[in-house]
Each structure stands twice: as structure tokens, then as C-alpha cells.
Description:
This protein is α/β, with parallel strands linked by helices. It is built from 15 helices and 24 strands. A hairpin with a 5-residue loop joins strand 12 and strand 13. It is globular. The two termini are 23 Å apart. The model has no long low-confidence stretch (mean pLDDT 95). Uridine-diphosphate-N-acetylglucosamine (UD1) binds next to helix 1, helix 5 and helix 6.
Amino acid sequence: MEQYAIRGGNPLVGEVEIGGAKNAALGILAAAVMTEETVTIENVPDLRDTAAMLQAMESIGIRVERIDRHTVKITAKSIQDLVIEEDSIKKIRASYYFLGALLGKYRRAEVALPGGCNIGLRPIDQHIKGFRALGAEVKIERGLVIARAQQLKGTHIYLDVVSVGATINVMMAAVMAEGQTIIENAAKEPHIVDVANFLNSMGANIKGAGTDVIRIKGVSGLHGTEYAIIPDQIEAGTFMFAAAVTKGDVTVKNVIPKHLESISAKLMEIGCEVEESDDAVRVVAAKPLTHTHVKTLPYPGFPTDMQPQITVALGLSKGTSIVTESIFENRFKYVDELTRMGANIKVEGNTAIIDGVSQYTGASITAPDLRAGAALVTAALAAEGISTIDDIKFIERGYEDFPQKLQSLGAQIEKVSTERELQKFKLKIG
Ligand code: UD1
């Protein structure tokens, strides 16, 4: 079984390049099926999730040309089928974006029910509510979500919860609807703006993305484009917190510092120095970390996808901290693993009460999901001794070349597949 072997204790020092945003890429790849002309997308992160999206597209006859590791050309001229039930797509959450994209363009879509990280119930009722408001019939049968419409008509849609997925999906479905659609209580995450910018570059008329009211004027068709995806806020944030927990000095490059403001603010609160420049942020953790409180919120609040990473840091911060998870109801499963490394954390409902300890110790642990998996890697990098982390397939869903990037900052981490390789790693690091 593949695992990461890590010897903790080295401060991370140096510079690291951040890749394209996974969650923007997943929306943008799906949106690329909305024109028959060729679309070129740059800065696509090379991840399990993006590979699954591209594979699903090929399965219905879409031409996918990989120009280089991070550039794809997509031509959706020859779609043979509007049913996506590829095995790999069932595992990822963003499969639901094909619903909005195919429904918007072809007035019909059948897509396997979404999977993704097991961090709570994750219903898609708001997506369905939006499609229905636009005039589609939606039913769930044989594990597929089936959406059909004679015609789509612009309308007023109020989302009952602030949902990234529903906002993007309804926006895509409305792009070619007749007349104007207004989405109220929309999510404001940077990747929503990125998907809207991408669609606008294809000829859509979307205004207000990044605010809580998005206005879409239906257009008759979309055309080809060339587009580069924004940097990944969560990958950047993970390296920023890795710097903090290892008492390091890391510059994350190729980022949009504005997208990282809530993360930078919390790092400063716990005692790190954060320096921003045009497209880079440097985190220096020269002083001992101190406690704080944090509640996850929709953007521009502190992201739920950074909750495990900040919990790992607060576990090593002097004093008592409280972390409140307000987006997903089951996002503290990793705390058991962290406890095995010596953390002192009590979870009550959606709150974690953390009494900081001075040191974690290496242990054999398992990644329960994508972000918690990455956070446990940062804990192991800070810990005394050797750790192994299983189920790294979750981490590979969202972090490109994670061990290599960490090694370049001085971390002792290797991906190993056998007991022999693990022993070799232990011998090598002495
Ligand atoms: C996206 C991200 C995920 C991130 C999350 C919150 C992708 C592929 N995933 O997930 O990494 O953690 O945003 O920033 O972009 N909800 C409903 N009904 C719905 C939809 C959502 O009740 O129809 C609830 C969810 O259960 C959750 C909250 O709304 O409690 C927010 O979920 P949402 O923003 O939709 O998350 P995802 O799009 O699934």
C-alpha cells in the first residue's frame, strides 16, 4: 500500500510554486463542454480529480488533448451521449458540474450521483432547486441525477444555503437560458469568479460573481477561448500553515494574496509574520505559536478546507483555542489521528477545544479525507520522530507533487509502497 513516510523536525524553508485551483478547474473543465469550439485551458492542476473529470469527458466523446502537463485543449463537438456514469467520476464531488453544463447547453443531462470527501451529508437540493426554477424536470433514478428541459427560462433564484457548488451549477445552467436569471444568496469564493470569468470569455453575460447577487443574461451560444486558471488558495494556505507548525520560513509563490487574507490574518494572530508582495506571501514562524479562536465561514471568511490545517497548528499553540466548523457537520474525524500524535483536543459537536501541547510525536496514521490528510502531513512534519500516513490517495486528489514540493523546502518525506522501501527511508534518514 502506498503511504508517506515522514521524519519530522525540520523547519520548512524556501520557496514553493502554487498550482492552479482544483475547485476552479473542476468547474471550468465542465463548463468547457458548453461550446462546440475548441477551448484551451492553462494552469490545470495535475490531480486525481482533474484526471477523473477529463476521463469522464472522453467517455462521452469529447476530444481532450493534453498540450503539456498543465494545459488541455477541449473540443466538445462530437458528444455522443449525455449520460456520464464513469466509475472514476462517481468518486468526485464535482461530477455534479456536468449537470449544469450539459443541461445548460443540451437541455438534458444524466450524471452519476456525486461522491467526494466524507465530511458530512452534502445534499444537492439547492442545485436541483435552481435547475427546476429554470424550467427543468429533475429526478434521481438508478444512481443517476436526470435533468431535462424543453426550454430553460431565466428567473429569480434564492439559494437557501450559501453553496459553492449550487452557485456554479445554476450559473452554468442559466448561461443560455432565455432572458435574465438572478441568483441571490450566491457564494462568493474566488473559484466562482473564475468560472464566471471563463464563461464570459466564451461569450456569456454574467455580472456580479464574487458578490451575493449574480445576474446572468442568457446568450444564444458560447464560443472557444483561451483561459488560465487562478492559483489554488487552499494549496497555498496548506504550505503557509506547514511553515507555521515547523517553525519555518516559506514563501508561497504564484498566488493572489487577496484570496489568502483570512488565512494570513489567523497566522498573524497566532504569532507568525506574514509578508505580502504582488504574487507571493512569505510566512515566518520565528516565535512560539499562541492560541486563538476560529470559525469556518463562506468566503471571505476562514475556509472550511483550511480547518484541519489550523487545528494542527493550534494543537501546538500555547493556551486553549476553539475551532468551530460551521459548514460541514462531520469534519473532525481526523482529530482521533492527531490525538495519537499527542494532541490534546476534545470535540463536542461542531466545536473542537484544543489545549496546546509543546510537541507532537510520530505515529502511524491514516488520512481520512483530502484536507485532513494534508493537515496530518503537516503535523507529521512538525512531530518528533517518524510517521507513516496511509490512504494518501485522498491527498493526491488535491495536491500535485506534494512530497516533492515539501522536500524542496527541506522536509524529510517520501512516498513508499513496500515495507522494504519504508526501511530504506528509515536507514537513509538515519
Ligand atoms: C465546495 C468545495 C469544497 C469546499 C466547499 C465549501 C468543490 C468541488 N468543493 O464543496 O472543497 O469544502 O465548497 O467551501 O468545489 N448544501 C446544501 N444543499 C446543497 C448544497 C450544499 O444543504 O444543495 C450545504 C452543504 O451540505 C454544506 C454547505 O451547504 O453544509 C456548503 O456546501 P457547498 O458550498 O455546496 O460545498 P460543495 O460545493 O460541495
